[in-house]
Amino acid sequence: xxxxxxxxxxxxxxxxxxxxxxxxxxxxxxxxxxxxxxxxxxxxxxxxxxxxxxxxxxxxxxxxxxxxxxxxxxxxxxxxxxxxxxxxxxxxxxxxxxxxxxxxxxxxxxxxxxxxxxxxxxxxxxxxxxxxxxxxxxxxxxxxxxxxxxxx
Length: 152
What we know:
The chain has 152 residues and is α/β, with parallel strands linked by helices.
């Protein structure tokens, strides 16, 4: 499972006991990866100016990092922030991968992510839309910076 949203904060605010869900997934052997934006990065700062929202992008990222910190070290839970050179590609597109399903949100120009459309894709074979988005998220993940809990 790869959750490659720039902030991912909505998981914690909309899914009851999301921390428990993540913990159970990891304990059952699932590899759970979170790719977030850098709360101190230039792309984050620029996105905050564009959105002009009271709940800033950096705050939403820090909310996710705080929740992940609370989970403590778990074998199978991995956290990275996008590389500075990839941040502009990450902030504009969220990709959430689950086995053969993907949820993809292309972020609209001046709205917060939850106001953008979300598409549900299913993998039906190689080289389709699922694989294209999975490849994109995988590349961002591979170039991302490992996150050390408590360092946000």
